[in-house]
Amino acid sequence: MGNDMPCKIVGIGTIQLRMHDGVIRTLTEVRHVPDLKNNLISVGVLDSKSFKCNVKNGVMEIKRGSTLVMRGFKKGNLYMLQGSTSSISESISVAEKNIPDLTYLWHMRLGHMSERGMMILSKQQLLGNHTVKELRFYDHCIFGKEHRIKFPKAQHSTKSTLDYIHSDCWGPSQVPSLGGGRYFLSIIDEYSRMTWIFIMKHKNQAFICFMEWKVLME
């Protein structure tokens, strides 16, 4: 220990922790040392098990890949884990009760990943101690993955100027023009690509500018 005094280990086993996000995680090869007043987690052991430790601004985050596994906050010279121990019976009941909800939670976290993809991550132990179950049907997930039909291409051709024009109104601009305008109306002739720009102080002036352009063309 820190004072060079040995402490007796009376057993080695597995414990389960309820993390800050409600997920139950399992720690293996845990030493039971009755003489210790506080439970300690070795950063060196976590590193040997391919976990990454990031410390910044009084917050320690333990990650595996891109998944946040544990989080602790600095208290004195130690970092206190944001979580609590959980008994085996409690863990089983919580897991059985919340398996569908946890599956849905991971589904949302992973950008609506498929059930098959989540099972692959679960087998690689990248979802903590959670076993992926069957996902329920969600309308927003199905609709979000549907492909939209493209707009049909315009079937028209121009043979002379002013046969077909394109117009758009833009604004407001954060920086006004020299005359105080924050909007503009653009008119483009498709055949010649001639462009007219009308600077406006107000958006409702667009129709007036269009009529001025129409008179100019006539």
Q: Quick summary of this structure?
A:
This protein is α+β, with helices and mostly antiparallel strands and 218 residues long. 26% of the residues lie in helices and 30% in strands. The chain folds into 3 domains: 11-86, no CATH class; 88-145, no CATH class; 165-217.
Describe it for me?
This protein is of the alpha+beta class and 218 residues long. It folds into three domains: 76 residues, no CATH class; 58 residues, no CATH class; 53 residues. Helix content is 26%, strand content 30%. It is built from five helices and ten strands; from the N terminus they run ββαβββββαααβββα. The strands form three sheets. The protein has a four-stranded antiparallel sheet with strand order 3-4-5-6. A hairpin with a 2-residue loop joins strand 3 and strand 4. The chain is elongated. About 6% of the residues have low confidence.
Task: Please give a handful of descriptors for the protein shown.
218 residues, alpha+beta, 3 domains, four-stranded antiparallel beta sheet, three-stranded antiparallel beta sheet, elongated, GAG-pre-integrase_dom, RNaseH-like_sf, peptidase activity
Counting helices, strands and paired strands, the structural category is alpha+beta
Give a short account of the largest sheet. Answer: 4 strands, antiparallel
**Can you give the helix content as a percent range?**
25-40%
- Global geometry: elongated
Q: How do the SSEs run, as a string of H and E? A: EEHEEEEEHHHEEEH
Given as residue ranges, the uncertain stretches (5+ residues, pLDDT < 50) are 88-100
Biggest sheet, spatial arrangement of strands? 3-4-5-6
Mean pLDDT: 80
Strand content: 25-35%
Total strands: 10
Our Rg estimate from Cα atoms comes to 32 Å
Distance between the termini: 95 Å
- Helix count equals 5
Number of domains: 3
